[in-house]
Amino acid sequence: MAAKKNPAGEAVIVGLDGIDALVKALSREGYATLGPRVEAGAVVYGPVASAADLPGGWTDEQEGGHYRLKKSKSPALFDHVVGPHSWKRFLYPPVQTLWTAVRKGRGFILGDKVEAERMALVGVRPCELAAIAIHDKVFDNGQFTDSGYLLRRKGAFLVAVNCGRAAATCFCASMNTGPRASAGYDLALTELVDGKRHEFLVEAGSEKGARLLPKLKGRPAEDADRKAAAKRSDACAKSMTRTVPDDIGVVLKANPTHARWDEVAKRCLNCANCTMVCPTCFCTTVEDVTDLKGDSAERVRKWDSCFTVDFSYIHGGPIRRDAKARYRQWMIHKLSAWHDQFGTSGCVGCGRCITWCPVGIDITEEARAIRDSDGRA
Questions:
Q1: Residue 330 neighbours by CB distance under 10 Å
Q2: How far apart are CA 53 and CA 34, in angstroms?
Q3: Which residues of the chain have pLDDT under 50?
Q4: Coil, strand, or helix at residue 268?
Q5: Integer CA distances (angstroms), 113 to 146, 195, 285, 303, in order
Q6: What's the confidence (pLDDT) of residue 113?
């Protein structure tokens, strides 16, 4: 019997019409196709029907506490980086009904509300692929499983986009999560814009992806195309200025009383923006709701944050009463304890927490400040 062909590495070069063909092919396959769009002055994720819905000609400007979307001289569809949305909102929705109960006679009929449609996520950055891979471990870790997440994840088709530029807040290179995708995608796009050239290298990462390649009507990719794509990714990685020290997990765990925690607490507003935009944070709360007649009830799960005082509330009051305790909990869990729980960092270097912090608190700056003090409080 002949060996099964590995689809990884199969690639074609397409133009803008090829991206149109991709979106339409995904729709014909029965996927609800989602991608980046320009709405309300930001790049957010929502339904896309063609390449015209993508943010062609737009770029972003990001710094600590600063985000601006502006027109670009480049016609590139993916000249932006990441915005306030992450793909978490589709695979792990902000609000989800877990079950319902409807009165029947003297009892109740329980209903499981886990629902999922097949989704094609177009424009998934490498750092976001890494975040999805982390959630795969979190929600199916051998002890606990999240059936809703697993159902949505099973039906997802992932179209990655390798980054050609980095925002000032990006630090994925130091987290080994980008700017080029290495695994976890069905198709990966690299946009090649140079002079009059505006093409895309489309690489297959799965059998599902490889089956779609012929429908894009592109030409076979050549070595020169692959080298041009690699050159863009290399330049993007070299442009990043923010980093997280390799040994930060050990350093943070050894410094729970460091004076830096007090300093950052004076600036932190406890607004929870960092956790809401983070692609890996997964804290939730549940609410039980009944109608006034008592004939029906439902349990609803909603995103929550370790930055809210009530999140750690138990009988007698909250465990983490002040901003210092809550910020320390978030950062040590993200960069240290996550390794113990899931075998990976909880941070993928997307930089969202820096951009969307109203006072510009920078997780890389805080990590380095503690590390460079050599453990001295």
A1: 24
A2: 10
A3: 1-5, 377
A4: coil
A5: 13, 52, 17, 17
A6: 67
In angstroms, the Cα distances linking 254 to 243, 247, 335, 336, 362 are 20, 11, 13, 10, 20
> How does DSSP assign 70-84, residue by residue?
EE-SS--SS-S---S
Single-letter amino acid, residue 317: G
| Structure token digits, residue 253 | 């765990």
Helices 147-154, 126-138: crossing angle, 10 deg rounding = 140
pLDDT at 108: 81
How many angstroms separate the CA atoms of 82 and 125, rounded?
8
**What pLDDT score does 149 carry?**
93
Helix, strand, or coil (residue 242): coil
Look up residue 347 and give its two tokens: 């941070």
Residue in this structure with the two tokens 């944070």, named with its chain if needed: 281
Contact 296, 103 (CB under 8 A): yes
Beta carbons of 156 and 119 less than 8 angstroms apart: yes
Instruction: Give the per-residue pLDDT at 8.
Output: 61
Q: Are strands 119-124 and 32-39 parallel, antiparallel or unpaired?
A: parallel
